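Per reviewer request, we include the raw input and output of the structure prediction for the construct analysed in the revised manuscript.
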Amino acid sequence: MARKYSKGASKTVANAMRKRKKGTLKSGKSGKTVKSRKQAIAIGLSEARKKGKKVPKKRTTRKSKKKS
């Protein structure tokens, strides 16, 4: 089976995790310190996407159809 993420993307996520542990990882506009592990992974993947690494697209939620 093919790899889901590239090695470069894994390094970017690992770097984000190290920053979180150190207490220097900040979130987007608010600039608050990230404490959540899941949020740190999401930030790492987002950075990897921006760099053009092999990362699957974000999942989008489906909207339910309205019954008329």
